[in-house]
Amino acid sequence: MIKDERGDIEYEECGRGPTIVLTPGSCSTGAAWRPVITTWNGQFRCVTTSLLGYGRTIERRTAHDTSISHEVDVLELVIRKAGGPVHLVGHSFDGLVALALAVALADRVPLASLVILEAPVMELLREKGEHRHYRAFRRMTEGYFADFADGNTEAIAAMIDFYGGAGTFASWLPRVSAYAIKTTAVNILDWESGYSFPLPPAVLAALGVPTLIVRGGASHPAAYRANTLLGETMRRVVTATIDGAAHFMISTHADKVGQLIAEHLHRVEMGR
User: Fold this and answer.
1) How many CB atoms sit inside 10 A of residue 142's CB?
2) C-alpha angle 71/133/202, rounded to 5°?
3) Considering the entire predicted model, what is its pTM?
């Protein structure tokens, strides 16, 4: 754990070698990375954490202050404890947090590289005039938020199925779906944080960090398109697609995710 005056931050590490800081998506904890970490057989030093409101990391946001800067503050502390330079890997919302950190702190935090697995970069869709895909995100979250406000404790199923396809939520193990239900209010804060984070293309184009962007070939078209645009906008980027995978690829396609990240790290470490 990292002890901080604003609340504890989850921190665990294992393995030896180049340091990877791994942050999971919403409704999840650092444990979600275990299937991917297993594929590396200890060849990397892996630091895992959970962002605000998940696992053992204490929430700092409120309904009146959902700024993604609070997430960036937590991730900065994790990176500084890990020691740099680090390869920062973020899935889903935490991919957006990793991107926000790179935008805000690229000159202050020692990042060797970025790996972003299907970040919800909705505001980039809007900036690029991709209104159909942007509205797909908005329709989903508006309906989901309203359903939860009306008392449906399983309202989050609509968000899960948006990302993973119809029936995804129902297919999850009871303990996994129960944790998603338990953390619904936190997930809603995540979406509010994402919608309030501007993503001007010029700012993204100015980033010089070597980056790998991973999409699922079976992902929702809006998520796929958003991350395609991210790859087209940033520089020093490799964009990869995992055929047959959807958004929850770190559990369904852990071997392929692990392979892509390892290849990216080796390219960066070799200076290529």
Assistant:
1) 11
2) 60
3) 0.95
CA nearest neighbour of 179 among 29, 66, 48: 29
> What residue type is 148 in one-letter code?
F
Buried/exposed code over 170-202 (b: 16+ C-beta within 10 A; e: otherwise): eebeeebbebbeebbebbbbbbbbbbebebeee
Number of neighbouring beta carbons within 10 Å of residue 34: 15
Contact between 171 and 252 (Cβ < 8 Å): no
For residues 7 and 82, what is the distance between their CA atoms, to the nearest angstrom? 18
- How is 205-259 classified by DSSP, letter by letter? HT--S-EEEEEETTS-HHHHHHHHHHHHHSSSEEEEEETT--TTHHHHSHHHHHH
Looking up tokens 């990391």, which residue turns up? 57
Model pLDDT, residue 84: 79
- CA distance linking residue 76 with residue 48, whole number of Å: 13
Joined together, the tokens standing for residue 143 give 């309906």
pLDDT at 74: 95
- Per-residue pLDDT of 49-92, as tens digits, reads 999 999 999 999 999 999 999 999 999 999 999 997 999 999 99
The tokens of 182 are what?
Answer: 């338990």
Burial code (b: 16+ CB inside 10 Å, e: under 16) for 143-166 equals ebbebbeeeeeebbbbbbbbbbee
SS3 content of the chain, % helix, strand, coil (to 5): 50, 15, 35
3-class DSSP assignment, residue 87? strand
Dihedral of CA 48/53/58/61: which sign? positive
Q: What is the DSSP letter of 128?
A: T
Q: Which residues contact 43 (CB under 8 A, 6 or more apart)?
A: 15, 17, 262
